[in-house]
Amino acid sequence: MDTEYETPLFFHVMEYAGNADTDVIDMVSGNPDWEPPAALRDGLHEYADSNPDQFQYPPSEGVLELREEIAERRGVATEQVVITNGAGEANYLAMARALERDRGSEIVLTEPVYPYYPGKTTMLGGTTNFVETAADGQLEPDDVRAAASDETAAIVVNSPNNPTGAVYSRETIRELVAIAEEHDAILVSDEVYDHFDLTGRFASALEFDSDHRIVTNAFSKSLAITGFRVGYAIFPPDLVENAKSRHMLVNVAGSRPSQYAVLHALRETGPNYYEQNRDRLRERVETFTDALDAAGAEYTTPQGAFYVMARFDGYPGTLENVERLIDETGVAGMPGEAFGDSRREWLRFALVSPRVEEAAERLARYFE
After folding, report:
1. In the chain, how many domains are there?
2. Which CATH number covers residue 182?
């Protein structure tokens, strides 16, 4: 049976913006516009002088020293860590392992949803079941419990959240782990924005000892290196070996220079780097939401990550309206319909541009 996959709307919007005749401010993609740590560049320079044997395949599951560094930081065994091609592959491996257990074929997702999750579910032959979040993006565990069943293979959550900016409480994460255990399912906790928690209340699923949770992450956002493609997944001991095999069959191995540079950056970069980036984000949130106030828009104030969802009266979040906004204001955002039915009236803007203030002014003028 042929299966058709939808091309994510991200690519369509970025292509449309790139072909525009006017100056366009990109607020579509989550590419940080700030500098990576200095130690990352130092690591690349150091790697360039390595012996030729260091230019060959690394271990398929990742450079050992990097896996050890991650394991120590996250309080797990090195054997549980698999280095992946960004968080995207980490989530793919996690969802695949959940479905391969033959405990069901359903993936429970939140609504609004990061579009790649349902896309991966389709790719892996699973079915989707959506649980709608509150207006501020918070997830009610009782709603997840009501949706879960013996057919549930996995519950996939993302905190801090894309697109709503919600940060789930420790109690919520604890309950989600418990729900996974009750149904012999797997909680897949995507924590790629953990360094962009603006509340100080972020809770990792690793805080709860369980064989029913897989944690995924990456350095794409935290080190401002989306092009390096270094992510990781932390599996329960009984699920990790097949994940390593699937990773090897799909990728053979990851990039050794990228992993080398990331390891160097982790070892040499202090907490001030991350705090400066959070401060920058806080300022941008204030600037952008002030302009949305001026435009009379309804919006979500992110608790983490770097996205704002906004609703302008009489201007639903369709692809057609996003293209119109590009043409008439020179601001490119994402249509809310890309994230599910519950946000069809909304637009999503990524605050990873040095021109956030200018974009805000353009939107305020357009909708005033």
Report:
1. 2
2. 3.40.640.10
Question: What's phi and psi for 187, nearest 5 deg?
Answer: -85, 120
- Does 3 score more than 80 pLDDT? no
* Model confidence at 1: pLDDT above 60: no
Residues 80 and 208: their CA atoms lie apart, in Å, by 15
The one-letter amino acid code at 86 reads G
Whole domain around residue 69: which residue ranges?
A: 51-268
Overall pTM surpassing 0.90 (yes/no): yes
Q: Is residue 258 part of a domain?
A: yes
Q: Specify whether 191 is located in the same domain as 99.
A: yes
The last residue of a domain, from among 242, 268, 294: 268
